[in-house]
Design brief:
Layout lengths: L2 H8 L6 H43 L10 H13 L8 E10 L8 H16 L7 E4 L5 E7 L4 H16 L2 E4 L2 E14 L6 H17 L4 E3 L2 H22 L5 E10 L4 E12 L3 E3 L1 H11 L2 H21 L6 E5 L2 H4 L4 H12 L6 E6 H5 L2 H13 L3 E7 L5 H5 L6 E4 L1 H4 L6 H16 L3 E5 L4 H10 L3 E3 L9 H8 L9
Parallel strand pairs: 5-6, 8-10, 10-11, 11-12, 12-13, 13-14, 14-15
Antiparallel strand pairs: 1-3, 1-5, 2-3, 4-5, 7-8, 7-15, 8-9
Helix pairs in contact: 7-8, 9-11, 11-13
Length: 491
């Protein structure tokens, strides 16, 4: 209906008033329907906007901790750094690495998840104005931004006396008690970097140093930077060695000697003469290989080389000898480990009795049931098992009777001062008595003097290892030693 028709009706100029009234009613209804449609569409659009905003918000936070995601941290920091002047501005970043205290026993994601949320909520209550807690790249990583850092001591005190107790509190779960450990790395802007890449790199270096030194909090410094630079070079060159079948590494062998000064076996020890750094401690590059995942290949190479050397000694007629090879905790948890070792020995043509494997307490205690199964599989082939560094771990006495162990190795830390330290003497006697009662062999490592040797043999130790008898030697040199039954008779 046109406007002019409505106008005519209003002015009484149209005679068909009923028709006009009907059309007018339809028009009013049509306008009402249109208005309702427009309102509904507007409401739907508004709802979609709110839903989009909600989805955008949800996509920027971690579902388990409700913290801003790591990418939000990167975005916020890049925006922040664009507007800062390093001559007048400052701030701090703290990287928290939170992990299960047992490292294995209750590390199920579903167990940790609600406890992490509970912990994060309590940490949020500690934040001061302007501070932001971000989720790291993993659930156990958190990053704290602290603006306008003026009193560094105040921040360190807060982290150690307020944050740390909350993180390390004990939690009761359906599986038992759980407690988190925490390591923190810290950097300052602009002292430790003016770009985000530099700050993040140094933040990671500080955290790694805290983990390595078993410290709760370490702030970045140039010494840490140099250590990490060397570690990166070692990591790179170790990868090159792997590609070249570890041609730059070699094995040394240190004898095990009985009370009659006869050699009964040896421990294989890997050595690496690095082209830049010279001889690198095995503990150092083994740890790096564990972190990078290269330990599987390195461990396999060490075992293979040791077994090949052993095979050559046996062919030379030296039957009463065995070789002991260390397994790292990372190796020990590798699925199919026992089957792989047995296959290798069969392929080389060696019986199990010629091999002993050294495993640390920590590796065994991480999962005693699984460890027992692995050990029994190995022992079924005749391979023997030794606990390395016995007495330095935890829960030793509680679990020892249930583990099928053949040999206990007394740690060097007990041997060093055993002649003068009554506490060490008592510990050594206790371990020897325990081993005897369970029918285990006792081997003392790190023996450096005749007096130490005589004392330990008198206490009931079965075998001695250490520089008193011999430093680690090459395969050929060890063959010379075991080829002469009287080599150590004057000892």
């Amino acid at each position: 209906m046109e406007i002019r028709e409505i106008q005519a009706f209003i002015e009484g100029k149209d005679t068909d008033s009923n028709a006009l009234r009907t059309q007018l009613a339809h028009l009013v209804k049509a306008h009402r329907v249109q208005a309702e449609r427009e309102k509904k569409l507007k409401d739907e659009l508004q709802g979609e906007k709110e839903e989009n905003r909600r989805l955008i918000h949800l996509s920027s936070i971690h579902p388990d901790t409700m913290l801003p995601l790591y990418r939000e941290y990167l975005k916020d920091m890049n925006i922040l750094l664009e507007g800062l002047d390093p001559r007048v501005n400052s701030f701090a970043l703290v990287h928290f690495m939170i992990k299960d205290h047992t490292d294995q026993q209750y590390s199920s994601y579903n167990v940790r998840k609600p406890l992490m949320f509970k912990t994060v909520m309590k940490l949020q209550d500690l934040l001061l104005q302007g501070e932001t807690l971000y989720q790291g790249e993993r659930l156990e990583d958190l990053i704290l931004y602290v603006p306008a850092l003026e009193k560094e001591e105040f921040l360190r005190d807060r982290l150690l006396t307020r944050f740390l107790p909350i993180i390390s509190a004990r939690h009761q779960t359906g599986s038992g008690e759980l407690q988190f450990d925490c390591h923190m790395g810290m950097v300052r802007y602009p002292d430790h970097g003016t770009s985000l890449n530099e700050l993040n790199s140094n933040l990671e270096f500080a955290l790694q140093e805290a983990v390595r030194e078993k410290q709760s909090l370490i702030q970045y410094n140039t010494d840490i930077g140099e250590i990490q630079r060397k570690n990166l070079i070692i990591q790179r060159d170790l990868r090159k060695e792997k590609e070249e079948s570890f041609a730059g590494l070699e094995l040394r062998y240190q004898p095990f000697v009985n009370s009659g000064n006869r050699v009964v076996g040896c421990e294989s020890l890997v050595r690496w003469n690095h082209p830049e750094f010279g001889f690198i401690s095995p503990e150092k590059f083994i740890r790096i290989s564990e972190q990078t995942g290269d330990i599987k290949m390195l461990g396999r190479w060490i075992l293979y080389q040791a077994l090949q050397d052993l095979k050559r000694w046996l062919k030379a007629g030296l039957e009463d000898i065995y070789v002991s090879v260390n397994l790292s905790p990372v190796q020990f948890t590798h699925k199919g480990l026992s089957e792989e070792i047995i296959r290798m020995m069969k392929a080389i043509g060696l019986e199990g009795r010629y091999l002993k494997l050294e495993i640390t307490e920590g590796a065994i205690m991480a999962d005693p049931e699984e460890s027992t199964m692995i050990i029994k599989n190995l022992q079924n082939y005749g391979i023997r098992i030794a606990i390395d560094d016995f007495g330095t771990g935890y829960s030793s006495l509680n679990y020892l009777m249930n583990l099928p162990i053949n040999t206990l190795k007394l740690d060097k830390s007990f041997v060093d001062d055993v002649l003068n330290n009554s506490r060490n003497q008592e510990v050594v006697r206790s371990i020897i008595n325990l081993g005897d009662s369970l029918g285990m062999e006792l081997l003392a490592e790190g023996v450096e003097s005749k007096d130490q040797k005589e004392y330990l043999f008198a206490q009931g130790v079965h075998y001695i290892q250490g520089y008193y008898y011999s430093a680690p030697v090459t395969s050929g040199e060890f063959e010379t030693i075991i080829g002469d039954p009287d080599y150590f008779q004057d000892k």
